Amino acid sequence: MNIVQNIVGKFQRVAEMILDVLEQRMDFISFEERLREELNELGREIIREVLEACDAYLRERREEREGWEIERRHQRKNILTQFGQVTYERTYYRHKESGEYAYLVDRAAGYGPHARVDTVLKAEVIDLGTELSYRKSGQEPSQVAREAVVSGTAVMNAIRSFDVEAEKGRLLSSATEKRRVAVLYVEADEDHVPGQGGGVHLPRLVYVHEGKEQVGKKRNKLKGLHYIAGVWNDVEELWLRVWDYIDSRYDTDHIERIFICGDGDQWIKKGLSIIPRSVFVLDRFHLDKYLVAAVGRNTGAYRKVWAELREGNKAGVEAVLKKAGEQASTPSQKKAVRECWRYIQRNWEGIMAYRRYPEANIGVSAEGHVSHILAARLSSRPSAWSRQGVDLMARLRALKANGQDVRGRYIAQKKQQLKPLKVELSVVVQERQRMIQVSREVFNNLPVLGGPKTQLRLILPCPGWWGLIQLPASYSGLTRSSNF
After folding, report:
1. pLDDT tens digits for 212-221?
2. Would you say residue 174 has pLDDT above 50?
3. Within a domain: residue 68?
4. Domains in the chain: how many in total?
5. Residue 57 contacts residue 426 (beta carbons within 8 Å)
């Protein structure tokens, strides 16, 4: 392993470039661009050196690769990283008992047999993919490293490799002291997403909160907000997930009532059979849409229906709509009146909940949340999705809206599958000692320090600066192996 010897020249170039800026008056933008290129090249070289050093460690120590025999050496691999494309050489092995073939250093780095993109870069594009199209997400890293362009297909595959369900379990198990509240609100709605090959997918969004709290003179926000989203064929499974969350976060013995709010679809009302002490509340936004379609907005009939609803007079509502149906001039208008009355009949209990429970009168905002969490990425753009893609994206969007670090969570999942990289500790000690010597040589060889004295040379540190570098006493004489 000659990491110091091989990398130090690049450090020297970076140092010389900085000094050039100071001495030759390079403009700052040019300096930043050049610095980025130099540091990206340095990052690529360091990754190559570390991978090849670990490969050498495994190749030279049979005890670290028990059962694996060398098949071929100097096999090249290209991997796309956040610094750009890295090319390194590694050893190909065959297991003498199982007959399996593998590149052991690739396994140690978390690279599968056909991996072309590094895990950290995958994490970056997964996070970007929750906001941008797959194609744009793959192009975005090139703003930092020009070579770091990931295909849209690779972004999609990276997202599909993220185990979102593992995050669900982690969130439920991380609950601390359970909160005590008397009332909870559960709001629900769905998006309509075009499917590949035709048809429509219906990702569903359910969110739990404790009501509104004021955060400004004219602004409120939902307190204790938590989102659950995805495509569920089995609606019962969705509501069991909602109850698992409530049970993990709240002392359910102290909850007096849980309001389930929505547009009255049967999948939403299914929650009443799963969630204890629950009451359905109809979203007034959807009720208003039916009324406007039936009788118009600025009409006497519209105002009369709302007045009868506030009084809880079902017969009065029926009478107003019956008269409106008789006066309708077109078949479509008559149909709208009939549908409005049927909608009110189906959801009468949900309308009366506002009269029976004053605390239910906080308004339902499901439409806006669906627009922000789901539609903004899934249905507001002219694109078609697979069912799997819709499901994963809905769950990732909810995860992110819950304040979770998508990038960090993906990396944490992949780390669990890895063992520490290993190199010989005595070699590390030698490299540290070499670093002191090389640092002295680099400083003495910087062109700006030679020749006549300049203002720049006068302000630079004295040549004895390397004496500040010390080896820890505990490093002397060590020969055992170490995790790198």
Report:
1. 988 877 788 9
2. yes
3. no
4. 1
5. no
